[in-house]
Amino acid sequence: MLQYLQGYLSQPVTPGEAGNYLWATVYIVIVITGISLVVLAMNWGERKALAHMQVRLGPMRVGPHGLLQPFADAIKLMTKEDIIPDGADKLVFWLAPVVIVITAWTTFLVVPFGRTHAITDMNIGVLFMLGVSSLSVLGIVMAGWASNSSYPLMGSLRSSAQMISYEVAMGLAVVSAILMTGLSDSGIYLHHAGSTAASGVGTLSMIGIVEAQAQQGTWFIFKFFPFGLIAFMIFAIAMVAETNRAPFDLPEAESELVAGFHTEYSGFRWSLFMLAEYSGMLAVSSIAVTLWLGGWLRPFATWHGPQIVIPHYWQGGALDLASSLLPALIFFLLALVCLAGVIRMPRIPIFRFQTIGLAVFGLLLGFIGLVLLAPPVRDRIQDIFWFTMKIAFFMYMYIWYRATFPRYRFDQLMRVGWKVLLPVALGVLIVTAVVGVLR
Amino acid sequence: MTEPISTSSNPAGNDRTFLDSNELILNMGPQHPSTHGVLRVILKLDGEKVRGTECVIGYLHRGVEKIAENRTYAMFNPYVDRMDYVASVSNGLGYCLAIEKLLNTEAPLRAQYIRVIMTELNRLASHMVWLGTHALDIGAMTPLFYTFRDREEILKIFEKYCGARLTTHAFRIGGCIYEAYEGMEQEILDYCTFLEPKIDEYEQLLTTNRIWVERTRGVGFISGEDCIALGVTGPVLRASGVKWDLRKAQPYSSYEKFDFEIPIGVNGDTYDRYLVRMAEMRQSVRIIRQAVAGLPAGPIMAKIPKVLKPPVGEVYVSIEAPKGELGYFVVSDGSTQPYRIRVRPPSFVNLQALDKMVRGQLVADVVAVIGTLDIVLGEVDR
Amino acid sequence: MPEEIKGNSSAPQPPAEKPATPAAAAPAKPAAPAKPAGPVPEPWNAALPNALKSRFGSAILEANTYIDQNYVTVDGQVVRDVLQILRDEQQFDYCVDLTAVHYPKKDLQFEMVWILYSFARNERMRVKTRIKDGDPAPSVVSLWPAANWLERECYDMFGIAFEGHPDLRRILLPDGWEGFPLRKDYDILRQDKAWVQANLGIESGQ
């Protein structure tokens, strides 16, 4: 059994590429669980970060520092009464959240957390992701329609119009990144590992894009400076609008007249919408990370540093060693923070449960850190770690935008999408192509 | 309460049915997160554009003017705080000034200075509430927490001075009843030093923020002439270019002794009203500093009879409240109870201008315009 | 300056002097200190009231100043013209307030008060008139749009109809309310029981 496991783990391709259905299924389960856990963590993180930016504390009572708040919310949502409006179209009403969640999760089929850490790798990976995420618009329109009320309908139409508009700019920015996979700074044409495509040809495969960045030795955000950067920024703005988040969240804002498309949904159905929204945020962040920020590559991936040999533990460059110890270090740091929190907790009986909980949590984090020091784990976790760190950066930016910016009015929102982002994206695309060919 | 839509805003549109046109009647009901109290606004929309509005008010009508006829002058003093409950000190100041005028007396100089300090602190508090809620309506949720946190310090000063945070009843007819508590001057000066960088912080968050500017510039325009014709006063009038402030034009309570400016705007839109109120906050801090520095010694209460029986007559006294011209028209018949007290509320008259400011704008702007008018329903309805 | 009272030596101070003469009651009138004559309305002599008087003659019933506040009382027939003149010729472009006072024992029960302000002259004045119960008052909405809601409130509270108002209906009280609260014969504990019963479904608690 162990040999089977080890045999599998030493393979150089993703299970989808290898045609291994069992492992592909296992990976799917792992990814879906992972998404759900991240959504829970995002829920907590958003409330805490938002609160701290607003000079307040956020959830503090449910579990130490509110760490159990997402679970409490999940339990609440699941036990809430399921209300279906009287005149609603029952089938569509039931189907809409399902459609949205399925499309949000299906995009994760091709998201690469590492060279072998993906469910599969299609050679049209990026196109697949963009296409499937567009299907969520259908779910939104279904939700607004099925609610049988004019305000959700108007909200869902606005939402879908907004998403469609920003997808155009997103797509163009994506195309200019894909162009870069085949064009090079120094005139050397590159191959996708394992492909028989002629040189000078780019690739749509997610893994291929990251490998192209590895081979070219530069993240595409820095390539053809400043055009890579501009394309990245266009995508970064468009992806916020795509996921209906602040400052583009007029369709679902509470203080506006027309409430959002998910007004009539309560309890578990609403939690599916929330799940889909955060999953969508993760998905577009994954696209951004893969296309511009080097995917699972660590910064300065081509620098290895002087050779270091630790018997039975490490043989390789110093920088690589430092980078592989980083995840463990971060967990130890978090465990230290928990320890500091435990020491600072007031010593009164009512806090005993919280203090114990925080201490247990800190020990758990420390334990995970120890596990991450072990060589077999350490090697494999590297890619996933860097990918996750970059996604976490995007998630934090999402929260930061929500705390800081007022909302765009709907007509201003559409104007930005069509009259500002689209021309700039077009321009960047053309210039990238020209510059790439000329070099 | 089923009121038909007023035909006054569209006399010709009466014979068309709902199906004949694109028009939609939308009700921003009395319970709404953004209408600053129980205000009902009925909008007639053509798609996204607003073609007419009607405000339905009176949900908070408590009959304050009728109550006044059944209370003695001093007994009525706490009632006036409850009208504009966000800035209750100004209400009290206006009322005390009116009755003192009726009695033909004036408060001693020290009392006047204390009144100025408290009134300007209350102006700061009122503008902070305005800023937080206005930004929240437009979508920026963070300034709300910052302004309310900083306003807490003002409320602490009020609590130390007169025992109450919100409905302060700080002044009495004839002066102040409470002496400045120990350390009050220093505390207020410290607060001024604390607040000025905070005002800079609020400006940093919003003034040059492109989204804020787009949401507020050009929204809710009203010209200076329209303001005067509609009786609009306060920062709304000043942002439309009319340089008029009762503290300078007809000074009361020793305001003429202080050196401050009146900020005015150029375009009469929401952005200018925002800038005017931010500048007013800075000027308030300036006034407070001067008042604290020049606080004279002396009595704080004029000699007035215990049982107030003003001579027969009537007066009208108005002050520059944070929201506009707050006036009291008091008719006395020589007895201990006023014969008639009429409160001229700035928010009531300013709200009339909503229709003019919002016509032709988009639905999402209505919320911004209501916020920029800075109305308090307690004052609108009394 | 702050303590100086116009025309009087000091503020009325009966309590301070009363203990000095406790028993001196009826005959010794000066025992109760001669209450200093309070402010009295004095005639308002200025260009403005004189212009009005020359224009309207006896319709201007009085033009006085009381504690520095100027007011004119005019006859009900000419009040609209007076207001028009004030706005057009005398630059009173801001209608500060308009309200009414109810004197039920008088013939002309309602005293309408318009408070006007002129930006150019930095001057405030009141225009008053008396009307009978049931008579309409002239509406000044066409002169100052500010008067729209102010007149509606006056109607709501007193029942004074305004002639020429574009949309005269109740503003603060609900539409179906019976009675006009600020009248002196509407006692403070009274409510419109029928309305409360019909709309709130409870017995009026008063």
Written description of the protein model:
The complex is a heterotrimer of chains A (439), B (382) and C (206). Chain A has helices at 2-9, 15-18, 21-53, 69-79, 90-106, 125-134, 136-146, 150-182, 206-216, 227-242, 267-292, 318-344, 352-371, 375-404, 410-438; strands at residues 307-310, 314-317. Chain A is mainly α. Chain A has a two-stranded antiparallel ribbon with strand order 1-2. In chain A, strand 1 (307-310) and strand 2 form a beta hairpin. The longest helix of chain A has 33 residues, at 21-53. Chain A is globular, with a radius of gyration of 23 Å. Chain B has 382 residues and is an alpha+beta fold. Chain B has a single domain (64-381), classed as Cytochrome-c3 Hydrogenase, chain B, CATH 1.10.645.10. Chain B is built from 15 helices and eight strands. In chain B, the strands form three sheets. Chain B has a three-stranded antiparallel β-sheet. In chain B, helix 2 (73-81) runs antiparallel to helix 3, helix 4 (109-138) runs antiparallel to helix 5 (142-162) and helix 4 packs antiparallel against helix 14. Chain B is globular. The two termini of chain B are 19 Å apart. Chain C has a single domain (39-187), classed as Beta Polymerase, domain 2. Chain C contains five helices and eight strands. Chain C has helices spanning 14-17, 47-56, 79-88, 147-158, 193-200; strands at residues 42-43, 60-66, 69-74, 94-102, 110-118, 123-131, 137-138, 162-163. The termini of chain C are far apart. Classes of the chains: A mainly alpha (439), B alpha+beta (382), C alpha/beta (206). At the B-C interface, helix 1, helix 8, strand 6, strand 7 and strand 8 of B face helix 1, strand 4 and helix 4 of C.
